């Protein structure tokens, strides 16, 4: 009971303020179709579904299921915009609008009456058809064959008559540059300068919910990069050099290990000799120290060091 009461309050509130609780915003493009879901899995015999459309302050009933009878109101005077475009699912009550145009922007409200009353609303925003961007030669340069190989190509990506879009240049998946417009409908252009072309460049025009892409063809407008093949040659050379270095390291360590083993074998024989040499060194140091210390101070200390 209390649930019904709360919903009723919200329903009233909506009528006053124009703000609806639980409103789903849906963006679509002209020509698209959209299904507004009731989230009912299966309507019961006595369930009632009511769809209304509101634009400005006028609200009209557009579809209904009542006592299992489906009614579509698309031929009333102010529902002309929906003629032949509405379909309601008898099982779920979900409403499908096909071949959408700008006139279908607005608020769609749903009432589900099945013991209680449930409300949902969908705010439909219809965007102009998005056509693929056009890539053209910015400077109207001479054709590729007449162009000197040093010359860059200057490209321009354009989208005509657009609003609320972002226009971007991509190389592979990384963004090179982009430009955005808000609401007003204008023509957008974004330049790109290239020394040469491989086939990974693309221009994307995008709404927040959908985009259109034009890939830059290798054959038109720009010289193909001469190092398209040498790139793989470069990779091959790096691989070969790495392999050589690896071999070098392996053989070097093999030599070192061999030497170490030999040294170990002869270590015992030479140990005594090494000790003698060390001892001799120490004596030499002592002598030198004694030579340089003409003042004759701290001589005992040096001696101590030398015989350690
Ligand atoms: C809704 O209001 C706008 C201006 O606020 C007006 O241009 C438009 O014609 C109105 N639409 C309807 C169906 O009354
Ligand atoms: C741009 O859009 C307006 C209306 O939105 C239309 O009248 C005009 O023909 C369009 N121009 C182009 C070049 O598509
Ligand atoms: C060609 O384009 C590159 C950047 O892609 C730029 O650094 C270079 O200065 C340009 N060269 C000429 C001659 O415009
Ligand atoms: C374009 O749309 C697809 C999905 O439709 C998305 O995966 C991709 O990231 C979008 N690209 C851009 C640049 O927005
Ligand atoms: C790209 O080039 C191919 C052939 O080289 C051509 O069939 C295709 O139409 C071109 N696409 C564009 C967008 O220019």
UniProtKB/TrEMBL annotation:
The signal peptide annotation in the UniProt record is 1-21
Q: Which UniProt keywords apply?
A: Membrane, Signal, Transmembrane, Transmembrane helix
- Which stretches are transmembrane? 236-258
Membrane: is it a keyword of this entry?
A: yes
Please provide an example of a Pfam family that matches this protein in its UniProt record: V-set
The segments labelled Disordered in the record are 285-308
- InterPro entries with a match to the protein in the record: Ig-like_dom, Ig-like_dom_sf, Ig-like_fold, Ig_sub, Ig_V-set
Domain Ig-like as annotated: residue spans: 133-219
What's the protein called, per UniProt? Ig-like domain-containing protein
Which species is this record about? Cyprinus carpio carpio
């Amino acid at each position: 009971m209390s649930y019904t009461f709360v919903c009723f309050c919200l329903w009233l509130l909506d009528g006053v303020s124009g703000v609806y609780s639980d409103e789903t915003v849906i963006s679509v493009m002209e020509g698209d179709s959209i299904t507004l879901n009731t989230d009912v899995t299966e309507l019961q015999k006595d369930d009632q579904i009511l769809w209304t459309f509101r634009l400005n302050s006028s609200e009209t009933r557009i579809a209904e299921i009542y006592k299992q009878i489906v009614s579509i109101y698309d031929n009333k005077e102010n529902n002309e915009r929906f003629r032949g475009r509405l379909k309601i699912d008898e099982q779920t009550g979900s409403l499908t609008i096909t071949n959408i145009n700008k006139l279908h922007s607005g608020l769609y409200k749903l009432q589900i009456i099945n013991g209680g009353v449930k409300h949902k609303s969908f705010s439909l925003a219809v965007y102009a058809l998005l056509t693929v961007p056009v890539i053209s030669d910015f400077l109207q340069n001479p054709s590729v064959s007449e162009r000197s190989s040093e010359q860059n190509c200057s490209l321009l990506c354009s989208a005509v008559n657009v609003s609320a879009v972002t226009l971007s240049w991509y190389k592979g998946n990384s963004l090179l540059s982009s430009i955005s417009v808000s609401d007003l409908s204008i023509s957008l252009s974004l330049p790109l300068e290239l020394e040469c072309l491989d086939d990974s460049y693309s221009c994307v025009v995008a709404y927040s919910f959908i985009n259109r892409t034009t890939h830059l063809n290798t054959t038109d407008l720009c010289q193909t990069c001469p190092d398209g093949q040498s790139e793989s040659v470069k990779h091959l050379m790096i691989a070969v050099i790495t392999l050589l270095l690896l071999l070098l390291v392996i053989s070097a360590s093999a030599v070192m290990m061999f030497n170490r083993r030999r040294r170990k074998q002869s270590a015992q024989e030479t140990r005594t000799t090494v000790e003698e040499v060390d001892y001799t060194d120490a004596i030499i140091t002592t002598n030198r120290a004694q030579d340089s210390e003409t003042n004759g101070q701290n001589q005992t200390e040096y001696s101590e060091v030398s015989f350690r």
